[in-house]
């Protein structure tokens, strides 16, 4: 048995025109009731038409029908069916009515989207409304919409109760209208009405051979009118079965008992519908809740678009992101387009793949070849070869849809494909797979497409979904404010509404767009509002407590182990990781998604830069455990994953491997025993906490000796320099990363230079730092040195040349840096050198040409740089050279033509540049050349025609440039890519 919809005694409102009387757990049939015209107000006609004596308890579509047809979804349409035209009623014509109803039916009611037969039960004029719905659905503006096509394809039968197919003489009777202006729908009720004639003609054109029609006619007059409303001749429909009942127009659809002929007639027809459709019925899945339909509309359209071209689409996302719900929404939308469909639920949890295959056989209707019965696991294992042969033959000959929810492993996916032989089946068959990592599917690309689930933060839908669960259906801000005001009025606590709103929005922000979080938190805190025994003030504190527990990744019910549905769902992703991946996941969760943000290349260097580190990072990304921003490469992690990771670390108690709170850091730094700590951070502390705790070391002139031999990550973000000077590492052999960002010191703390195994040193924003010690050369394993915004730094030590493993040197915005040492040429592994806005830099050392691994050189904004060394062309691996804003640069060295790997050359704003060397034509891989506002540039060398891969050339503002006629062909070819050429 399903669910009697009972927020109102006469149905659940889905939209202004849609009401739901009954919703089963599994839908096999949809029955839609449509009322007729009304002499008075018609807002209740959708249920009073069918209710004996006009009482809700006698509403038989809601009471009798679900008992006899427990798998039938029962709905009713409501429309303005008033026969009188007033300022508010009786104003819509039949054409507009059909357009409005068909949109609400498929969008809000989702009628016809479950792949099950649809039956219209129509009283009086409601039959003409049903016809108009069909006609409207076949009009160009609707006929191309998939959901409308689904509805029309799923219609099976029409049951007309006294429908005036040819009008009624009563429509012109003064007794019927009883004064007032005639509404447009009443005109369609008239005999020989041309619009009704048009409707009947178009309906005949669009009706389908598979549809069935049944007519129930009245035989008694209405005493008030002294005639029948719809004469038998008007109610007849040529190809329909016909039954005349001893009843009037009003009573014909209000049976007095379940044995009444009018009720028996309908139930007989519904049984016929089920018998006809039992074989071809697609496997039904639970209907997603109504609130999911709107939020998934855009994603549904995107995936359905991908399925037009791809056989398989993978829905990839973290736990709780809505992969399964989206898969169900898409399945229900498109399953009726296929001859057979199958939804394989939670494949990962099944004990064997054989169990999954048996489910697939059953849903496809493939029987046991010997007994003719359904496939069973026992006989499948005994006759596996025969069953798989039948399965492959079936897939080869039928258009099938298969949804594989949570496939679990690459092996499961590959075996399913092999057992079905889907890729050798029909080209119009499709598969949808949900999983947490793209790695499982991408081997089969490009035949498999990747769709990453979008979270809801920033869309407004997060607030809608959350408020739906908090306030049980309320979505808009106006509505939930009204709900809160009413709630607080119980105990005169209206002044608290502002506090409730703050916590409400804080929880939404904390959920960070994750649908499962919004559902869990919304349902939980909403339960307090519905508890009449909880005073408003206590309820507010319970909300705040729930928010804190949520941020700490604790179970809301206090259960040990955080076994709540949300955290359990997220924990699955972590538990599936190997040791190396777990360590990296926890590093990011604890240190690199708070105040500090790092690009993926920096993280690779922190971890050591080995090829295996790159594989690990890619695996974590493919599993949706963090994302890499496409624009700046910064690694981000969802808040709930971060909180889960920190909760896992906290679960180790006093033996925590990573510490970041003041309480835990105090314990580690004050300990006289050796600790197993691998990461320690003061980065997220406020300044007062740092000063209060670490400042005591300065006052007492005692050093802070850290006894952490496994310490690899040390974050001292914005810790005062005199405090850092008191830190001593007893054992620094494991140290990989030190962050001293924002440190207020003139020289780097001594303990840093003893960390000879260090991979990355971050000194960003140390604005008082004037120089680096020659001891910097001790860090021979250093891969990344970040000195951005060290505004007082004047030079680098000669020993910098000892850092032969250095891959990235970032000196951006070191405005006082005047020169680089010659020893920089020893950095043969340097791939990135950033000198952006080093405004005091006048030249580069000749040795820079020895940086044979350099791929990116950024000199943007070095406005006093006049030239590049003649041998700069030796940088044969350089792919990007940015000289934007080098105003005093007058020429490029002829050797630039040797930079055969160069793809981007930016010379924008080089105001003194007069010409380009002829050798520039040798840059065959150059795709982008920016000469914007090179105001002194007078000509381009003829060799520029050799730049065959050039796709962007910006000459805007080159006021002195004149192109010779010899380059006219080149300009014509480059026309789509030229910007700003005026000569």
From TrEMBL:
InterPro entries: AB_hydrolase_fold, Disease_R_plants, DUF676_lipase-like, LRR_dom_sf, LRR_R13L4/SHOC2-like, NB-ARC, P-loop_NTPase, WHD_ROQ1-like
Protein's UniProt name: NB-ARC domain-containing protein
Keyword Glycoprotein on entry: no
Disease resistance R13L4/SHOC-2-like LRR domain residues: 753-860
UniProt record, GO biological process: defense response; response to other organism
Span of domain NB-ARC: 307-471
Keyword Repeat appears in the UniProt entry: yes
Keyword set, alphabetical order: Leucine-rich repeat, Repeat
Domain DUF676 residues, every copy: 25-172
GO molecular function annotations of the record: ADP binding
């Amino acid at each position: 048995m399903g669910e009697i919809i009972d927020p109102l005694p006469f149905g659940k409102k889905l939209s202004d025109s849609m009401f739901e009387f009954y919703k089963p757990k599994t839908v096999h049939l949809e029955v839609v009731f449509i009322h007729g015209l009304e002499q008075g107000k018609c807002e209740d006609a959708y249920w009073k038409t069918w209710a004996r004596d006009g009482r809700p308890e006698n509403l038989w579509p809601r009471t009798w029908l679900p008992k006899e047809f427990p798998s039938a979804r029962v709905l009713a349409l409501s429309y303005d069916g008033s026969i009188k035209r007033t300022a508010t009623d009786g104003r819509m014509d039949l054409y507009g009515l059909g357009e409005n109803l068909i949109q609400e039916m498929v969008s809000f009611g989702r009628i016809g989207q479950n792949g099950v037969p649809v039956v219209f039960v129509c009283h009086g004029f409601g039959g003409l409304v049903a016809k108009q719905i069909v006609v409207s659905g076949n009009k160009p503006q609707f006929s191309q919409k998939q959901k409308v096509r689904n509805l029309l394809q799923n219609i099976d039968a029409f049951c007309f109760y006294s429908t005036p197919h040819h009008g009624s003489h009563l429509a012109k009777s003064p007794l019927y209208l009883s004064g007032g202006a005639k509404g447009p729908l009443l005109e369609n009720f008239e005999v020989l009405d041309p619009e009704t004639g048009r409707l009947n003609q178009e309906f005949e054109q669009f009706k389908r051979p598979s549809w069935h029609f049944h007519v129930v006619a009245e035989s008694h007059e209405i005493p008030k009118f002294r005639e029948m409303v719809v004469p038998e001749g008007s109610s007849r429909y040529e190809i329909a079965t016909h039954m005349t009942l001893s009843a009037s127009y009003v009573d014909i659809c209000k049976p007095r008992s379940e044995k009444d002929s009018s009720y028996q007639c309908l139930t007989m027809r519904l049984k016929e519908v089920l018998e006809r459709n039992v074989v071809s019925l697609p496997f039904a899945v639970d209907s997603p809740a109504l609130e999911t339909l709107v939020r998934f509309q855009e994603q549904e359209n995107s995936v359905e678009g991908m399925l037009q071209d791809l056989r398989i689409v993978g829905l990839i996302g973290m736990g709780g992101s809505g992969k399964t719900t989206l898969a169900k929404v898409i399945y229900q939308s498109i399953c009726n387009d296929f001859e057979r469909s199958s939804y394989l639920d939670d494949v990962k949890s099944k004990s064997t793949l054989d169990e999954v295959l048996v489910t697939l056989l059953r849903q496809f209707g493939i029987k046991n070849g010997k007994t003719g019965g359904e496939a069973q696991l026992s006989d499948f294992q005994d006759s596996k070869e025969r069953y798989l042969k039948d399965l492959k033959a079936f897939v080869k000959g039928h258009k099938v849809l298969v949804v594989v929810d949570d496939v679990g492993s690459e092996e499961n996916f590959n075996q399913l494909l092999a057992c079905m032989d889907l890729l050798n089946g029909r080209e119009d068959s499709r598969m949808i797979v949900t999983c947490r990592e793209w790695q499982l599917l991408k081997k089969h690309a490009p035949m498999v497409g990747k769709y990453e689930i979008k979270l809801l933060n920033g869309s407004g839908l997060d607030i809608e979904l959350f408020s739906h669960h908090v306030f049980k259906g309320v979505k808009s801000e106006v509505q939930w404010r009204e709900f809160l005001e009413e709630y607080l009025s119980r105990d005169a606590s209206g002044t608290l509404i502002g506090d409730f709103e703050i916590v409400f929005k804080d929880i939404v922000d904390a959920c960070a767009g994750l649908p499962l979080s919004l559902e869990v938190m919304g349902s939980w805190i909403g339960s307090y509002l519905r508890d009449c025994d909880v005073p408003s003030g206590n309820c507010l504190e319970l909300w705040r407590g729930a928010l804190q527990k949520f941020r700490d990744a604790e179970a809301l019910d206090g259960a040990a182990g955080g076994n709540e549905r949300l955290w359990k769902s997220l924990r699955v992703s972590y538990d599936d990781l190997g040791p190396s991946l777990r360590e990296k996941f926890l590093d990011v969760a604890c240190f690199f998604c708070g105040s500090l943000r790092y690009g993926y290349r920096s993280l690779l260097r922190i971890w050591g830069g080995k090829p295996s580190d790159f594989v690990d990072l890619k695996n974590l990304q493919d599993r949706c455990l963090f994302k890499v921003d496409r624009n700046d490469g910064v690694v981000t992690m969802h808040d709930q994953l971060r909180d889960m990771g920190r909760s896992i670390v906290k679960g180790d108690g006093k033996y925590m491997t990573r510490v970041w709170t003041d309480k835990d850091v105090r314990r580690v730094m004050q300990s006289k025993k050796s600790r197993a700590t691998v990461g320690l951070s003061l980065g997220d502390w406020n300044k007062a906490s740092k000063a209060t705790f670490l400042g005591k070391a300065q006052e007492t002139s005692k050093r802070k000796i850290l006894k952490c031999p496994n310490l690899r990550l040390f974050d001292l973000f914005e810790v005062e320099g005199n405090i850092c000077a008191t830190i001593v590492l007893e054992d620094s052999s494991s140290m990989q990363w030190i962050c001293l960002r924002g440190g207020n010191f003139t020289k780097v703390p001594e303990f840093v230079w003893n960390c000879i195994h260090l991979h990355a040193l971050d000194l960003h924003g140390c604005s008082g730092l004037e120089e680096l010690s020659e001891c910097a050369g001790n860090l021979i394993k250093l891969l990344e040195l970040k000195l951005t915004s060290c505004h007082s730094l004047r030079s680098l030590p000669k020993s910098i040349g000892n850092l032969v493993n250095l891959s990235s040197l970032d000196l951006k915005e070191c405005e006082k840096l005047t020169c680089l040492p010659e020893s920089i040429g020893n950095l043969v592994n340097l791939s990135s050198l950033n000198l952006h806005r080093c405004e005091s830099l006048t030249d580069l050392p000749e040795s820079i040409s020895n940086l044979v691994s350099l791929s990116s050189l950024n000199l943007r904004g070095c406005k006093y740089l006049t030239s590049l060394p003649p041998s700069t062309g030796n940088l044969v691996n350089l792919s990007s050279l940015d000289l934007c804003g080098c105003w005093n640069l007058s020429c490029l060295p002829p050797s630039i033509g040797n930079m055969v790997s160069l793809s981007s050359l930016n010379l924008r704003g080089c105001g003194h540049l007069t010409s380009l060397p002829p050798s520039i034509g040798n840059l065959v891989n150059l795709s982008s050349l920016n000469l914007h506002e090179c105001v002194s540039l007078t000509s381009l060398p003829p060799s520029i025609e050799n730049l065959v891969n050039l796709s962007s050339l910006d000459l805007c503002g080159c006021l002195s440039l004149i192109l010779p006629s010899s380059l006219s062909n080149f300009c014509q070819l480059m026309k789509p890519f030229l910007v700003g050429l005026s000569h």
